[in-house]
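[DERIVE STRUCTURE TOKENS]
===
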Amino acid sequence: MINLTFFLDSRERLQQSDEVELQMFNTILEEDFAKDYLFVMDKQLVINTFYLEDSIAPFLENESVLSVLNKDGSKMLPIIIRDNQIIKTNGLLNTKEVEEIFDMGIAIQYSDDDR
């Protein structure tokens, strides 16, 4: 099982993320991704997202997250936890990190307009 939890500031700030990282984030949140991953890799995905703009409670209930926020403030968001360990702060997962977590390769195709 892969258990990922994303602690995020706001949906508006999330939209300011790197385009590729944001697309990967949105993809792994999709129900079809979890179903396909279970079918292909035989591993269950549990993915949770918490937005500070919705409720501060999950941020206060997680000691690791609270510690980071008390020390460095909300500028460290997003905070990403895998299996109760902080694996990244201040950004979404990049391509390499997603490849490592999900044990799969990712190919990104850019159009000529994106270069």
Observations:
- Helices lie at 11-14, 19-29, 31-41, 57-61, 63-72, 95-102.
- The domain at 2-114 is CATH 3.40.30.10 (Glutaredoxin).
- The CA atoms of residues 13 and 69 lie 17 Å apart.
- The chain has six helices and four strands.
